[in-house]
Task: structure prediction
Amino acid sequence: MKAISKIIESLISAVLIILAFSVSYYLLTPSSASHVRSADELQKFGYALMSKLSSNDAFESIFFDQNGNPYRDWEDRLKITINSLVPSNIIFEVNVYKSVRPKDGGILVTLEKVNDKRISNTEDESVFTYVGAVAQITYIYTMKNMTTLVFDLRLGDLGGR
Amino acid sequence: MAKKKGQIIIVTALILALLMLAISTNLHITSITYQSLYYDDTKEVVDNINQDLNRILQRILAESSQQYYKGSSIETLYSQAQDDLSYWLQSIIVAYSSKGVQIKVAKGNIINLDWKNGISQANLSISLNLAHLNFYNWSKNYIQYLKISDVTLSPTYKEIYFKLSRENGLPGEIFNSTSCWLFQDGTKIDYTSVESTGEGAYVIKLKKEIPKVPIKLYVKDKRCFYVGVETILATNIFLIERPAFFYTDFSTNPSSKSMTLYGISWDGSSMLCGQNPTGSVVINKNLRENSNATKLWFLQKIYVTSPGTFFNNITVRYKSDDSVVSIVYSLKLSFTKQGKNIILDGIYIYKDNRLQVQKNININIGNDWLTLLSFIDESNNGNQLNLTVCYGNNPSISFRDNKIDNSYKRINLTLSFGYQNFQGICVDDLIVSESGIASYSPLKVTFEGLTGMDNSYYVRINGTYNGQHIDKTTTFNSNTLTATFDLTQYPIIKSATIVVFKKQGNNIIEVARGSFDYVVAGDYYSFVK
Result:
């Protein structure tokens, strides 16, 4: 009887220690670290991407031809350009807004969405809710015609590089 | 007792487990807290605002300067620039409202189109807060700048040099080879090319030489900034044309017969050309640099003490095919007690430093100085004297045939002066000039393309003539852009200094200065910036 109670005590102690180890392991293991790092990198990547497009006047050539006339298919041109610059495991969606000068006595500018088509490399918008990391970037760019555009870029990391 | 022992084991295990859980939880919370700070995108947002602010300033300056070039008023452009900046600021605030953007900008005009001084500039200071990111008081001064300077006209009047610079001392870059515009009196001047000579320096090669300055120059750079300037006062001085000439520098004592002849080399230095105690000298020198001159000028100052005939023989030797041809010109003047009528083409006679305008003039013989100014006109010699030659760089190349290479052809001039009656004549101050200038005409200091100069500017020249100190000051003429000295008595001023200065109250502000071994009356000295 004495031996049995000792065994039971030992087992209870062992179970307690194992449980404590298990919980500690779960808490200390950076199971979400990959997501966190990925979101951070996506954010930086997004800004770097937009900065690159703005610094060499790529936006101008996407929106306008050499004579300054706007392209009708500028959404497709923007999509192709961004698609060529992002890795295959990254999905993106961008919306472009134009800052409109105040009218009729207004004092503040307003943002108007200018893209009629969806500019993305994924058909399913809901994919962004499933991916591990998502980054949202707001980027401003003033065109040569003095119009300020606001790019709302969303990036998602599908993982598995 | 055993029961108590078993409880101790369990309690110990329980304490250990709780301890481990506490430590783990603490570490986990610490980890989460650290990572949430790491997501902060302040740097990227500031970077984006920074880049786009530079961009909007570029756009504003490009648009404003272009409109200014097209004739818009500066007030309209100031207002438009403020509107554009206001629009941009609001756009930023709306776009980054989630970051709590607050931007303060310094008051005042953001653009400065000071084309009197060749400057187009946009300047703005901002202070930035991103309140929702706890980022405050980030400030920066932005500048976009294009300056055109050092606009000079070449001595040939067929090239214009200028320098383009941008902010931070960087060299400017023109948009393309057609993005320069030149105007003179409202008329566009055509050019063949614009070439970069490095470090922002450019040369515009004109189709035709331009007759005068000022000119207006406009340039567009790679960023589509326009800038203009009217050629303005220089700090450097150069000679438009230095004619070849020779001068005597011997005693003015009429009893002296010796003659030492000096020449002025092309760089302004003096050179000994010949010496002859009889008053006659032969020189054999390359004569000319300017291929457009048509006349050889001779200026002599003679002292007549008794009646007699004065000969002045001039021999010009030049190369024609393989042989050397000599042409002798003889100027002959006879003097009598009653005076002599002199009839010679191309001779001007000065007496008492005044030009005798009549062709037939009476010269009263006595102990008197006369100045003779004469010339040989090439056109009277059926172009025998082909003076379309240049002063070559290589001294070993001489007498090259015109048919082979006109650019290096030279002419040798031999001058000999003879006097029938040495007793009565002494020669001083011989000047031989190959350019079409009158050596006894006033010295003109011309100011090429000045702006901002008025009658408060003065020009001073000092130096020596025959040991006599010369110091003369004259006012600048803003209408003709010249300052003219009457140097009738001083055909050559040695060790000359020309200074341009301005009077401001009791202060004298020196604007430009040039030093020359010799300044020759009739020559043109140009101040160009």
